[in-house]
TrEMBL record, chain B:
Keywords: ATP-binding, Nucleotide-binding, Transport
Pfam families: ABC_tran, BCA_ABC_TP_C
Protein name per the record: High-affinity branched-chain amino acid ABC transporter ATP-binding protein LivG
Primary gene name: livG
Statement: the UniProt record of this protein carries the keyword Ligase: no
From TrEMBL, chain C:
Alphabetical keyword list: Amino-acid transport, ATP-binding, Nucleotide-binding, Transport
Keyword Nucleotide-binding: yes
Origin species: Cytobacillus kochii
UniProt domain ABC transporter: residue ranges: 2-235
Gene3D superfamilies: P-loop containing nucleotide triphosphate hydrolases (3.40.50.300)
Name of the molecule in the record: Branched-chain amino acid ABC transporter ATP-binding protein
GO molecular function: ATP binding; ATP hydrolysis activity; branched-chain amino acid transmembrane transporter activity
Annotated Pfam families: ABC_tran
From TrEMBL, chain D:
Presence of keyword Zinc: no
Keyword Translocase: no
GO cellular component terms attached to this protein's record: plasma membrane
Keywords (A to Z) from UniProt: Cell membrane, Membrane, Transmembrane, Transmembrane helix
TM ranges: 9-25, 31-50, 57-77, 83-105, 112-128, 162-180, 210-235, 247-272, 284-306
Protein name: Branched-chain amino acid ABC transporter permease
TrEMBL record, chain E:
Gene Ontology CC terms: plasma membrane
Top-level taxon in the UniProt lineage: Bacteria
Topology in membrane: Multi-pass membrane protein
GO MF: transmembrane transporter activity
Name of this chain's protein: Branched-chain amino acid ABC transporter permease
Gene Ontology BP term (one): amino acid transport
Compartments it resides in: Cell membrane
Cross-referenced Pfam families: BPD_transp_2
PANTHER family: ABC TRANSPORTER PERMEASE PROTEIN (PTHR11795:SF452), BRANCHED-CHAIN AMINO ACID TRANSPORT SYSTEM PERMEASE PROTEIN LIVH (PTHR11795)
CDD domains: TM_PBP1_LivH_like (cd06582)
Organism: Cytobacillus kochii
Keyword set, alphabetical order: Amino-acid transport, Cell membrane, Membrane, Transmembrane, Transmembrane helix, Transport
The family this protein is said to belong to: Belongs to the binding-protein-dependent transport system permease family. LivHM subfamily.
First and last residue of the signal peptide: none
Length: 364, 253, 235, 334, 287
């Protein structure tokens, strides 16, 4: 940490994510959340061991390429002494995990890729919930309301594959049938007529889809054009509210099951965050912004509890305290606790579109 | 030494060379003439392996070489020049010619990387050959100049030197003096004569009749791909058919 | 008709032609002689605007043209038949010729007539009219290039070594054709290696040496000049 | 000749610079970037051998780079082979695959070859991306081990890894130097000049083109293996066309077909693009035009530009000398 | 059977767009003799301009498309004047890299101005129609017919008008074109304008059934390269035929082979064709 102007010290927080190229939009959203947290925190600053600190985000572009993340990581740690580096993609996270224990920094991982916390890396904190909790409730609801025939069209990403590999066995074990399986590459295709024609010829009752919200919404509307009237299981990456912006109304999305969008979430700190975000960016925040906002606060609390702003190990040990000490008005989400492997446990919530309206459905 | 039998080349429906029988006289200057589009260049290209013949055989030193690729034919001792000279403009004349002797060397990648004795020897050999050839064509004085800086006529000589560096026994020259003024044409003719004197067999395409008539020992005339006459310059000059098809009234001009 | 006044031009940094003065009177055939690389083609390129003169003036019917774009110069009536022919290799013979008449594209009948004239001049082109120019033999391409220039019906035709690579019979015919074209009223500036033939049909000539004009005179003067005879006629 | 262009001065100077570099930098991040630059340079040298000297622009180079990386990755991670043996095998396997592809690819020429190889590169990427069982798919391969110690030398520290990369880099530069300045190199250049002419000079263009192609894949594979050993994590994106384009850019900026070009271009751009990082998402707004401008004003790259300047200075000297002589002659004659 | 028909129609739609983009590329190839990587960026800008004209300026879809055609056409011309013209004498690899530079710039610029997110374009032709049991949207029918109309128009222009011929002439020999009195600057400008316009048309037609985002040109352009190679570089009929061949192979391949390997199909097709015919199917150069 370095000294700032008036006796305050500055802690650099590292970020390496896609700020240009195909995934830039996603990268920007994550960075927005992080930056907003830092701005808010810096209004007052925070105190660790009697010293006053402010935060400074050092954000580097890695174009979604792990090797660039690795270079960026080296740079952030060496030049800016960042105790924490945020990375919002699993490739980058893996690349950082190669040396984060040696170079002594926490990887703040925004990815629900299970591998990330299963490698025994002691300085990784996974922010978002694992998707595994969604499998059961989503499937059950879909099967009960629409029928047993599922066509799976997940995106080609690792995330999509993992989802598919989790949901298909469950669907089958619950007595359902998978009638079609293919994957889509959203970085290459945004017209899905060919794909859907093939999927729909099997007359499925439910479509399993997902990926970035916009192309996912596109799949829904094109499926409707082709006469499909069943339900949709939407992977947690896509958000129903964002999908509505593409389809124009929730009517088209009738029967879609997905995670509860941030704007329909009502924890103690959610509203304030949403309002602030809207004002600043003139659009609704997605969960990636919310989680990054939240995570930064958790880290600050952990630093306070640890009594250190630069000892990564110590900070990691105090994440649990960070979660506990988190002020209520910052609770964009209500996080439960951090597990041994670095995964933060979370509540599972699901929503559906019914009669043209969003509706939260109880899980359990 | 080189003989072709029934040589034919079709391009699509076009017959560029039509069953030509011909044999090159060793150690002599053999000329091939004929109207434009008669198939002379194609004839050369067939022998030197640039094009594959449609029909016919080519025999060189009792060995059939009909469908051999150009590089194999060159190794057997058949060299050629092109009408337009492609040289590497940004390197020196000598560097351009050195590679001409590459076909007589054996060094491979291994030799190059470890700079073996063989490589060093062969490099010397190539350099010596290049110098010798440049000397022969009278270009020693420009051997260290970049090719961009030498004159058109000198470039033509470099092309000759390149051909000579391959250690050929027979050389095919396709219009070596096209666009060269009479004064320089004479110089080139002398060079061709000098090559023949050295024991090389020459095959020559030219439209410059005075030069051909003076240089050539033997002339073949092609017209529409067919051989219409063959013989000494004196015979050809008198041949009615040749006059009608090709020479017109300017034989003596 | 055409007047070059102290024209110099260069490729890159080095002067290729220096202080060239040439005067072509309407209706004449004028010959440029010179060794390879002496600067004849460079002069032609400068006249037709492909190369910009670095100094000096070029006047065509008293209008300065040394700053004019090549296509404007063509429209004014100067057409060059270049040494390396510059044909459209994938177009067939007839299309090449029609492109030659580009500036007269509105006058369909005239183009048809010119086309027939060219075919009459070079019957072989008629035979090959549907073949791609790039596949013609060297000599055939040369004829096509001349034919294409003819299609533009120029007032002044620049012929750069038209006899290159042509069979003797054809050369003879070609000089005949040049004479005919000239007699129909086209002024001709001709660069040639074949000095004897060229001077026989020309009115006057210029001899180039190292990018400068070393000698000039009427055709007869040049034909009888010992040095010229020795260097360019080979007798 | 200028001191700075004298080989006898500049080469030892650069080597010394390379050796003392780890001692003069403020932190290890510089070492990381420098090590990467060495690795990229090796790949660019491979590309230059084919595109610059032989005249065949391969756009599959990123793919071969990735093959090298994946071979070492698969051998060490999946088959748990030792690092050094895998490291040895990686470029060889790449070369072998290169040989097979080259046999077909080299039937084409010019743009056909460029696009053909572009497609080959893309297929390599897709294969790596889809063949999960072998390559780990999108997830990639994690946990490539460090090189085992050789006697007392260990490769744990970034400095040791830097010296290892530097050593291999020097070796490659020396080998490339010998190749391009030998009969083999002359043969390649002859092919670039004119294949017809080369054939008529008795050069087997087929064989030599294949040799150049295979060599170029060898260096790509070597660089890929070094990269995998250095980053220790690989994903399919290293096979993507962007890598090829990066390599191409390094080569062109440095000077295609020049000996020093790959080094100059790679180091320059790697350093510039690190320095443009502060621009974040707008850095391509600067980098794109910069690249285009450079190409417009110096098509033969930086090294080509310098060579041209030197050459023209020399020529001017000769010219003015010759001109003077001529003046004198004409004066004497007139 | 119905499935086959539906997929054939899908192939026809995709193929029409491919053909349009490939046509622009092939035209430019004819003049520049380089694969213009920046063409994909033009396609992308075309999509954005139409979108912006509709959302911000409130223009009708068709009007917005006209504006887009003009803007992208001019952008393309600008590119020629500022970059490719100065580079006309340098070897082709240089142009390629310069084109990559432009591509990087335009993408960054688009992201800077319009953001990196996926955007949706609405269309007045969104209606779903059933024809012979096939489900089509009007927009898709529009794509097919508009593309075919544009292609016929272009073909007629190039082959039958003197102005069109000048493009071909210049492609084959720039100086030769000057010597017959063609203003090569004008022709180059015209060509690039047409190429840009084709990219804009292609993008504007497909955007309503796709999404608009900075990277939208990537794969399209890669496939367009495949097409012009298959069709013979610089060949107009080749580009059209190649576009449809690819469109059909993809939609049928996705149906009867594997949807996951749909993208590989194009590239494998190319490798196969070039391995057998190294010069492409229509192996003559020239437009
Ligand atoms: N690659 C080719 N494809 C098709 N036709 C060709 C090809 N090469 C040559 N031809 C045709 O073959 C015939 C003979 O051409 P060739 O070049 O051999 O003539 P030439 O005798 O050398 O004529 P010139 O003296 O004018 O150079 C010509 O009609 C030409 O159009
Ligand atoms: N494109 C060019 N770039 C650089 N230098 C050139 C170029 N064209 C010609 N030159 C040089 O300009 C000078 C004059 O050449 P030019 O072509 O005008 O000669 P020429 O009299 O027409 O000769 P030839 O009889 O060979 O046609 C020569 O030294 C030549 O090397
Ligand atoms: Mg010939
Ligand atoms: Mg000339």
């Amino acid at each position: 940490q370095s000294s700032g102007g008036n006796g305050e010290k500055v802690v650099n927080i590292g970020y390496s994510g896609p700020l240009s190229g195909a995934a830039a939009y996603y990268g920007e959203n994550t960075l927005n959340g992080l930056k907003m947290a830092v701005e808010d925190i810096n209004k007052e600053g925070f105190e660790v061991n009697g010293d006053k600190y402010k935060l400074n985000v050092v954000a580097l572009d890695d174009k979604y390429l792990p090797n660039e993340t690795a270079s960026n990581g080296k740079r952030l740690v060496q030049e800016n002494q960042t105790p924490i580096i945020f990375s919002p993609h699993s490739g980058g996270i893996s690349a950082l995990q190669v040396f984060n224990e040696v170079d002594n920094f926490i990887v703040s991982a925004y990815s629900s890729e299970p591998d990330i916390v299963e490698r025994g890396n002691t300085l990784t904190v996974r922010i978002p919930p694992s998707y595994e909790g969604y499998i059961e409730p989503f499937s059950d609801y879909a099967m009960d309301n629409f029928g047993k025939k599922l066509a799976a069209i997940p995106p080609v990403t690792q995330y999509g594959k993992d989802w598919a590999e989790a949901i298909i066995p469950y669907w089958e074990s619950a007595g359902g049938e998978v009638v079609h399986k293919a994957s889509v590459d959203y970085s290459k295709d945004t017209d899905f007529f060919t794909l859907l024609t093939n999927a729909l010829k099997e007359e499925p009752d439910v479509l399993f889809i997902g990926g970035p919200s916009e192309p996912t919404a596109k799949i829904v509307s094109q499926a409707r054009q082709l006469g499909y009237d069943g339900g949709f299981i939407v992977m947690d990456q896509a958000k129903l509210d964002e999908m509505k912006n593409v389809t124009g109304s929730y009517e088209v999305l009738e029967g879609a099951i997905g995670v509860v969008p941030l704007i329909y979430t009502e924890y103690s700190g959610t509203k304030e965050f949403i309002d602030k975000y809207r004002e600043k960016h003139d659009k609704d925040p997605g969960s990636e912004a919310g989680y990054h906002y939240l995570a930064m606060y958790v880290f600050v609390e952990a630093m306070k509890a640890a009594g250190s702003v630069d000892d990564a190990k110590l900070i990691r040990e105090h994440i649990e305290d960070g979660l506990t000490n988190l002020p209520d008005d910052k609770k964009v989400y209500d996080l439960k606790h951090i597990e041994e492997n670095g995964a933060i446990e979370n509540f599972i919530r699901m929503g559906v579109i019914k009669d043209g309206e969003f509706e939260e459905v109880d899980v359990e | 030494m080189l003989e072709v039998k029934g040589l034919t080349k079709r391009f699509g429906g076009n017959v560029a060379v039509k069953s030509v029988d011909y044999s090159v006289q060793q150690g002599k200057i053999n000329a091939i003439i004929g109207p434009n589009g008669a198939g002379k260049s194609t004839f050369f290209n067939l022998i030197t392996g640039v094009h594959e013949p449609t029909e016919g055989t080519i025999i060189y030193k009792n060995e059939e070489i009909t469908r051999q690729p150009a590089n194999v034919i060159a190794k057997l001792g058949v060299a050629r020049t092109f009408q337009s000279t492609h040289l590497f403009e940004m390197s020196t004349v000598k560097d351009n010619v050195i590679v001409g002797h590459r076909l007589r060397t054996k060094s491979n990648l291994f030799d190059s990387i470890f700079r073996t004795k063989r490589l060093k020897e062969e490099e010397q050999q190539c350099i010596a050959k290049a110098e010798e050839s440049l000397d022969f064509v009278g270009l020693s004085h420009v051997s260290d100049q970049l090719v961009t800086n030498i004159s058109q006529e000198e470039k033509k000589r470099v092309a000759f030197a390149l051909a000579l560096a391959t250690d050929p026994e027979i050389v095919f020259l396709d219009e070596p003096t096209a666009g060269v003024n009479p004064d320089e044409t004479d110089e080139m003719a002398k060079l061709i004569q000098k090559m023949a004197d050295k024991g090389l067999t020459i095959c020559l395409i030219e439209h410059k009749m005075p030069m051909i008539m003076r240089l050539a020992h033997h002339i073949m005339v092609l017209n529409y791909g067919e051989k219409i006459a063959e013989g000494t310059p004196a015979e050809i000059q008198k041949n009615e058919e040749v006059i009608k098809a090709y020479l017109g009234g300017t034989v003596s001009a | 008709m055409l007047k070059l006044d102290g024209v110099s031009a260069k490729y890159g940094k080095y002067l290729s032609i220096k202080d060239i003065d040439i005067d072509v009177v309407e209706g004449e055939i004028v010959v440029l002689l010179g060794a390879n690389g002496a600067g004849k083609s460079t002069t032609f390129k400068t006249i037709s605007g492909l190369l910009k003169a670095t100094s000096g003036k070029i006047l065509f019917n008293d209008v300065p043209i040394h700053q004019t774009a090549p296509e404007k110069i063509v429209q004014m009536g100067i057409v060059q038949c270049a040494e390396d022919r510059k044909l459209f290799p994938y177009m067939n013979v007839e299309q090449n010729l029609m492109m030659g008449g580009y500036i007269h594209r509105k006058r369909k009948a005239q183009l048809k007539q010119s086309l027939n004239d060219v075919f009459e001049l070079f019957p072989i082109l008629y035979e090959k009219r549907n073949e791609a120019a790039g596949l013609l033999s060297g000599g055939q391409q040369q004829m096509l290039a001349i034919g294409r220039a003819y299609m533009a019906k120029p007032k002044l035709m620049l012929l750069d070594e038209p006899s290159i690579g042509l069979a003797p019979l054809i050369v003879e015919q070609m000089f005949e054709s040049i004479k005919n074209i000239n007699q129909e009223g086209t002024t001709i500036l001709l660069a040639e290696q074949n000095a004897f033939a060229a001077l026989s049909i020309a009115k006057k000539g210029y001899v180039y040496e190292n990018g400068q004009i070393a000698l000039q005179g009427t055709a007869d003067e040049l034909l009888s000049n010992q040095e010229v005879r020795k260097a360019y006629i080979g007798a | 000749m200028n001191v700075l262009t004298n080989k006898k001065v500049i080469i030892p100077l650069l080597i010394v610079l390379g050796i003392v570099f780890p001692f003069v930098i403020p932190n290890l991040y510089y070492l990381h970037i420098m090590t990467l630059a060495f690795i990229w340079t090796i790949a660019v040298y491979g590309l230059n051998l084919l595109a610059g000297y032989t005249g065949y622009l391969s756009l599959a180079h990123g793919g071969f780079f990735a093959i090298g990386a994946y071979v070492i990755g698969i051998l060490t991670v999946k088959l748990e082979m030792g690092f050094w043996l895998s490291f040895l095998l990686a470029p060889l396997v790449t070369m072998f695959i290169g040989l097979i592809i080259g046999l077909f690819a080299l039937r084409t020429k010019e743009h056909f070859f460029a696009i053909y190889t572009l497609c080959v590169g893309y297929i390599i990427y897709l294969v790596i991306d889809k063949w999960e069982g072998l390559t780990g798919g999108v997830r990639g391969l994690i946990g490539i081990p460090l090189p085992e110690a050789i006697g007392p030398i260990t490769f744990q520290s970034p400095t040791a890894q830097y010296y290892l990369a530097f050593f291999i880099f020097l070796l490659v530069v020396a080998v490339i130097y010998r190749i391009v300045h030998s009969l083999t190199g002359r043969t390649f250049i002859a092919i670039r000049n004119s294949e017809d002419l080369a054939l008529s000079l008795g050069i087997s263009t087929k064989r030599n083109k294949l040799l150049a192609f295979v060599l170029s894949t060898f260096f790509a594979g070597l660089a890929g293996a070094m990269y995998a050993g250095f980053i220790r994590f690989i994903g399919p994106e290293i096979a993507y066309t962007t890598i090829t384009f990066d390599l191409l850019t390094y080569m062109i900026v440095g000077g295609i077909g020049t000996f020093a070009g790959p080094i100059v271009g790679t180091f320059l751009i790697v350093i510039i693009s690190q320095n443009l990082q502060f621009l974040q998402d707008y850095r391509m707004l600067i980098f794109g035009p910069l690249l285009t401008l450079l190409i417009i004003f110096s098509p033969r790259g930086i090294v080509g530009f310098i060579q041209m300047q030197l050459y023209q200075r020399k020529r001017k000297k000769q010219e003015s000398l010759a001109y003077k002589n001529r003046e004198e002659e004409t004066n004497a004659g007139g | 059977m119905e499935l086959l028909m539906q997929q054939l129609f899908n192939g026809l739609t995709i193929g029409s767009v491919y053909a349009l983009v490939a046509l622009g590329l092939t035209l430019v190839y004819g003049i520049l003799h380089i694969p213009n990587f920046a063409h994909g960026a033009l396609y992308m800008v075309g999509g954005y301009i139409t979108l912006i004209m509709m959302t911000e300026a409130g223009l009708h879809y068709i009007l917005a498309m006209v504006v887009s055609i003009c803007v992208v056409g001019l952008l393309s011309v600008l590119m020629e004047r500022l970059v490719f013209y100065p580079l006309r004498h340098s070897p082709p690899i240089q142009d390629k890299v310069a084109a990559i530079g432009i591509l990087l710039f335009l993408e960054a610029l688009a992201q800077f101005i319009w953001g990196a997110d996926y955007r949706q374009m609405s269309t007045p032709f969104g209606q779903v129609v059933e024809v012979f049991g096939l489900t089509l949207t009007l927009q898709r029918i529009l794509i097919v017919f508009a593309a075919i109309a544009v292609m016929i128009l272009l073909y007629w222009f190039l082959k039958k008008t003197f102005t069109g011929r000048t493009i071909i002439a210049m492609a084959q020999n720039r100086e030769g074109a000057q010597l017959v009195g063609i203003n090569t600057h004008k022709v180059a400008i015209l060509t690039f304008f047409i190429a840009g316009a084709l990219a804009a048309i292609g993008a504007s037609l497909t955007s309503p059934i796709n999404l608009v985002f900075p990277g939208m040109g990537h794969l399209v352009i890669l496939k367009a390269f495949v097409i012009i190679i298959i069709g013979g570089m610089g060949s107009i009929p080749g580009a059209i035929l190649g576009g449809y061949i690819l469109g059909f192979t993809e939609s049928l391949g996705a149906t009867y082979l594997s949807a996951d390997y749909k993208d590989i199909i194009a590239f494998v097709l190319l490798i196969l064709i070039l391995s057998i015919k190294p010069q492409g199917i229509f192996s003559k150069g020239g437009v």
